[in-house]
Design brief:
By secondary structure, this protein is of the alpha/beta class. It folds into four domains: about 5-130, 3-Layer(aba) Sandwich (Rossmann fold), CATH 3.40.50.2300; about 140-310, P-loop containing nucleotide triphosphate hydrolases (Rossmann fold), CATH 3.40.50; about 310-380, Orthogonal Bundle (Helicase, Ruva Protein, domain 3); about 400-455, Homeodomain-like (Arc Repressor Mutant, subunit A, Orthogonal Bundle). The protein contains 19 helices and twelve strands. A hairpin with an 8-residue loop joins strand 9 and strand 10 (about 270).
Length: about 450
């Protein structure tokens, strides 16, 4: 079967039978248990994706079964059900890690939607773990076309000796790309040395890069090896190279030309064998024209240019990144990973992330520390979620009874598709990625709603 594996635990035969018929009709693989004891035995011997668990059971009740599942480190997702639901039960189930809580009588569409969301989140977590387990280049999480292209470029240049110039906005993960290039190179067993050129004062950058001799300047009480010496036989990563002084640029150029350098205060040349990877968030070609960056160094560095796209150009990767960061930070803080509502995932996928991946990770840290469990829209900063007042104002502008609910849905969908197409320059592939629909499906909707580019310009 193509669906997930579901265990139904309920003492009411009719509930079990009805749920089984519905789920099997949707290609789920279903097993049933009449008691918690029977359900726990099945969980010991088989793997399930989801358990649909009634609260009121003879013997061990559903909440106690949920507690035992969590204590056993079984990572199966649990959805609770109850015909006598109380707020206390729902709160306790949420505290114990239930994915959702259904009141009986069950609503067929809600059950199916929740199961789909639950399995989507589970598959997402498994995919993140798979990517992380592969390490190296695959630590760069993302399955968008932009990330696949980036990985292909890294796989090509990594094993070569070619110099690499990585460009992209601040916070996109340029260092991660540099480490991935090093990880699949012949130098992977040697040192990877990072130098943040923007963080080192101009008067110290040469000493930091090339080392110095004792007494070469005030405070130089002993000889010091520079970063290029430390990186010999390995890789040096010159981050934010656009901030390097012209005098330091001249010395880097000398290394690239003949593999030689000299410490500050010495004229004796030293030979080093270093692969240079540079990165910048600046336009180096403009800097060359402004004569703040050497043109000969630019051409030496720009052998293989790699562009790292901003997060707004690969919004389809946000759910994967979100899941990975929440898992990582939960372990770092020693907390159980919090659940997150689908509304939050959608809101974060529609945000444009000016601070890129760094901003997303910082937000995840904030949510781990301050957010509720599950994390809801109310936990997000106001600049990410649409204003409720603005939303209400927009809704009140539509006269009551002026259209059917079906017509309203269609008008809203048409308007949103149209505005998203405009925002992405009528790039259908990018728009379909952002909206989370297949490209062919988006084409059908454009035709269905008669959306014409000429009408919206």
């Amino acid at each position: 079967m193509s669906g997930g594996k579901v265990l139904i635990v309920d003492d009411e035969k009719n509930i079990r039978r009805t749920l089984s018929m519905v789920l099997e009709g949707e290609d789920y693989d279903v097993l049933q248990a009449q008691t918690a004891e029977e359900g726990l035995r099945l969980l010991e011997g088989r793997q399930f994706d989801v358990v649909l668990l009634d609260v009121q059971l003879p013997g061990i009740n559903g909440l106690e079964m949920l507690r035992r599942i969590r204590e056993s480190d079984n990572e199966v997702d649990v959805i609770m059900m109850s015909g006598h639901a109380s707020l206390a039960n729902a709160v306790e189930a949420t505290r114990l890690g239930a994915f959702d809580f259904f009141e009986k009588p069950l609503d067929r569409e809600r059950v199916l939607l929740t199961l789909r969301n639950c399995l989507a989140r589970r598959n997402l977590a498994l995919r993140v773990q798979e990517l992380q387990d592969k390490g190296g280049i695959f630590e760069m999480i993302g399955e968008s076309s932009a990330m696949k292209q980036l990985r292909r470029e890294i796989e090509k240049v990594g094993p070569t000796k070619g110099r690499v110039l990585i460009t992209g906005e601040s916070g996109v993960g340029k260092e991660l790309v540099a480490r991935a290039v090093h990880a699949i190179s012949e130098r992977s067993s040697r040192a990877f040395v990072k130098v943040n050129c923007a963080a080192i004062p101009a008067e110290l950058i040469e000493s930091e890069l090339f080392g110095h001799e004792r007494g070469s300047f005030s405070g130089a009480t002993q000889r010091k090896r520079g970063k290029f010496e430390i990186a010999d036989q390995g890789t040096i990563f010159l981050d934010e190279i656009g901030d390097m002084s012209l005098s330091a640029q001249a010395k880097v150029l000398r290394i690239l030309q003949n593999g030689e350098m000299s410490r500050v205060g010495s004229e004796r040349p030293l030979s080093v064998d270093v692969r240079v990877i540079a990165a910048t968030n600046k336009d180096l070609q403009s800097a060359v024209q402004a004569q703040t960056f050497r043109d000969d160094l630019f051409y030496r560095l720009n052998v293989v240019p790699i562009y790292v796209p901003p997060l707004r150009e690969r919004l389809a990767d946000v759910p994967l990144l979100l899941n990975a960061f929440l898992s990582e930070l939960s372990k770092e803080y020693g907390n159980r990973k919090k659940d997150i509502t689908q509304e939050v995932v959608e809101a974060l996928t529609n945000y444009n992330w000016p601070g890129n991946i760094r901003e997303l990770r910082n937000l995840c840290e904030r949510l781990i520390i301050m957010g509720a469990d599950p994390i809801g829209l109310g936990d997000l900063p106001e600049y990410i979620t649409p204003s409720r007042e603005a939303s209400s104002e927009h809704m009140s502008a539509i006269p009551a009874g002026s259209m059917s609910l079906r017509d309203f849905r269609h008008a809203t969908e048409r308007s949103y598709i149209e505005s998203t197409l405009r925002a992405y320059g009528w790039n259908v592939s990018k728009t379909s990625e952002v909206l989370g629909v297949e490209r062919t499906n988006l084409h059908k909707k454009i035709k269905k709603y008669d959306i014409d580019r000429d009408d919206t310009t």
